[in-house]
Amino acid sequence: MRAALTLAALGAVLCGALGASAQEPDPTPRPPISGYDYMARATQELQDDDFVNPGFFAIDRGRRLWSEPAGASGAACADCHGAEGEGLVGAAARLPAVDPQTGALMNLEGHINDCRESRMNAEPYVYESEDLLALTAYVSHLSRGVPVAVAVDGPAAPFFEQGRALFFERRGQLDLSCTQCHDARAGQMLRGDRISQGHVNGFPIYRLKWFAMGSRHRMFEWCNTSLRAEPFAPGSPEYLALELYVAWRGNGLPIETPAVRR
Q1: Which domains does the chain have, with CATH numbers?
Q2: CA proximity to 91, closest of 107, 80, 78
Q3: Could you count the other beta carbons within 10 Å of the beta carbon of residue 152?
Q4: Which of 43, 187, 221, 245 is buried deepest, with most CB atoms within 10 A?
């Protein structure tokens, strides 16, 4: 009778298959390739057609929220940023970034909630809620085609180094790191999935596995859970720093929101 493969043995197999002993690669990423290019043609066609792309349900919801008054101020996003969001074209391509007033690293979700609290006197959205995903998708979609261009120098440098350390840190019972998949084995198959370089230029994405939209932090959480590691909370300082590093790896890739992934 064949003995069952233990968790420790499974981790050892995966570590060997993914090059755990390889020397840490240079921190400068290879020429970035979007996750779109690793998808099957049918998935690419689903993303390419704005009529059938399921992510556009979130875009439509976000467009409605954009013009909807909220909070004690009775203000809407459109009152400050334009009826169609023209004032925020390109913004998603530059985030996360350090807020000059607070010195905190903020992504798009953080800016949306900050505006709700400080300018609209409204309750912040819960991370990964449908409304926050919808507004994030809508604002990101305004920048579709704009190259990612996040800054990692100056005040962003400490956050960048924190995110880089997380990217190379081996975690969980499987003892794997982000780089072992998304640097060392990009383009290879892991069961039914082709491993991508792990770029985030399409988020929020509609993921077929989830039958729903998801943020960058949900994807980080899913990866951590797959490694049998304790995930950080969405919106946590750790995931914000990792988001900055991963976004920087994809500098130059066009924003694709709403992307469709397997």
Answers
A1: 35-262 (1.10.760.10)
A2: 107
A3: 18
A4: 245
pLDDT tens for each residue of the chain, 262 residues long: 333 333 344 344 445 544 443 445 455 557 999 999 999 999 999 999 999 999 999 999 999 999 999 999 999 999 999 999 998 999 999 999 999 999 999 999 999 999 999 999 999 999 999 999 999 999 999 999 999 999 999 999 999 999 999 999 999 999 999 999 999 999 999 888 899 999 999 999 999 999 999 999 999 999 999 999 999 999 999 999 999 999 999 999 999 999 999 9
Contacts of 27 (CB under 8 A, 6+ apart): 164
- The pTM for the full model equals 0.90
**Secondary structure of residue 149 in the 3-state scheme:** coil
Distance CA 70, CA 4 (A): 56
The tokens describing 61, both together, are 């919801």
227 vs 260: CA distance, rounded Å: 23
Residue 44, SS3 per DSSP: helix
- Residue 97, H or E segment: strand 97-98
Determine which one of 77, 115, 178, 223 is catalytic. 223
Alpha carbons 260 and 239: distance in angstroms, whole number: 22
178 annotated active-site: no
CA distance 82 to 142: 12
Task: Give the H/E segment covering residue 105.
Answer: strand 105-106
Tokens coding 124: 């912040």
